[in-house]
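Board notes (copied after class):
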Amino acid sequence: SLDDRAALRALCPGHVEEQCWSTEGEAFTAPDKLLRAIGRDLDKLAEKGVEIVAVRSMLLCVKRMNDGVRAGKNRFVLDLHAMERLILELGGLAGAEVFAVCGKVGGFGKYGSAFGPLAGRLHAVLEEGRARSAYRFPGLGEIAFVRDSDASDLCVAMASMVGKYVREALMERVARHYQRAVPGLHGASGYHDPVTSAFIGATRLVRRAREIPGDCFERRAAEGDAALEDGSL
């Protein structure tokens, strides 16, 4: 994670921390066969000119997202600001200008007014459209937001897999936490689906008894989220 342990837990009430950060039942291991396969894959990537130098992630917990809603920032704006922080971090690690390719965020065509960590930095607009928007930042490099980039760019696809893995790992922690208290409780994806709705309902009494704040469990919808998901902005 880009943030250290203390920063990640800074907003967590003490009695809620275990819900998201308990590592009980976890192990980061892999069989030798899989490790050998990964080694071969890394060799193939090297043949294509791709070397994995570092992997970084940004975690936006439910509490941070709900705080963002109250500050007038929907999920897509928060995602964009997280991407910006990652680019700045990895640019620093590279020690040179970078070419960063990101997925399109929220259907934006013009990103300049929505930038957070990059706001105020001198930059040139290379192109802005529904399929691709690109910007040049002196000293940092070029950043392109490309629609469906994970389907056309190998590096973006790998980064997307990392993001999905981290999300699933964190959601599994939440599920295991409540499964220890609710017999027969099924896990949930955390997305808007019937299984997740059932998970929310089945854990309601436990959360109430433990005084788990709603802001630490369920994301609030921000005004404009639906429109952005439809790509209308």
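Comment from the instructor: The beta strands are 98-103, 124-128, 132-137, 141-146. The longest strand covers residues 98-103.
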